[in-house]
Design brief:
By secondary structure, this protein is α+β, with helices and mostly antiparallel strands. It has one domain: GMP Synthetase, Chain A, domain 3 (2-Layer Sandwich), CATH 3.30.300. The protein is about 30% helix and about 25% strand. The protein contains four helices and six strands. The chain has a six-stranded mixed β-sheet. The longest helix is centred in the first third of the chain and has 19 residues. It starts with a strand and ends in a 19-residue tail after the last strand. The N terminus and C terminus are likely disordered.
Length: about 150
């Protein structure tokens, strides 16, 4: 796993051996290099802050720290509205990251904010992600905590 965490203004990277091919690793590294400054300079959300960007196998994971007051509001929202809020944090489809990522790659937005619990959102599939990193049943219609 490549991880860029803490302050995005001074990222550090650690490489562990992923279970992927060299071509997939190269694409994921290129996508990560693009994603760090992109998320460092994004100000699309006043209620959450990006606290890290990581590469997991062929995908990127973007970690959010959500304001506790807003997390309570999100917990009470209908699933489709909550999903739309998570989707706002995804790069637009025309951004180069989608060409840099391997074909099976994704960008997953994740958080562990109370009272939401652990939640992940797939940008490629516009759907929740389960604990194993697969798209959850419901294909985007339900955003549920991942335990």
């Amino acid at each position: 796993m490549l991880f860029v965490g803490g302050s995005l203004s001074a990222p550090t990277a650690v490489l562990a051996a992923p279970e992927t091919t060299p071509a997939v690793r190269a694409g994921t590294r290129a996508a990560l290099a693009w994603a760090v400054p992109y998320f460092q300079n994004q100000h699309v959300c006043s209620t959450a802050q990006v606290t890290g960007v990581a590469a997991r196998a062929s995908s990127l994971v973007v970690r959010l720290d959500i304001d506790p007051r807003w997390a309570r509001d999100l917990a009470g929202m209908a699933d489709d509205l909550r999903g739309a809020w998570f989707a706002l944090h995804c790069p637009f489809v025309r951004e180069p990251v989608w060409r840099l990522l391997p074909e099976e790659g994704d960008i997953v937005i994740e958080t562990a904010a109370a009272p939401l619990g652990w939640m992940q959102w797939s940008c490629r599939h516009a759907a929740p992600v389960d604990a194993d990193g697969r798209q959850s049943a419901g294909e985007g219609r339900s955003l549920t905590p991942v335990r």
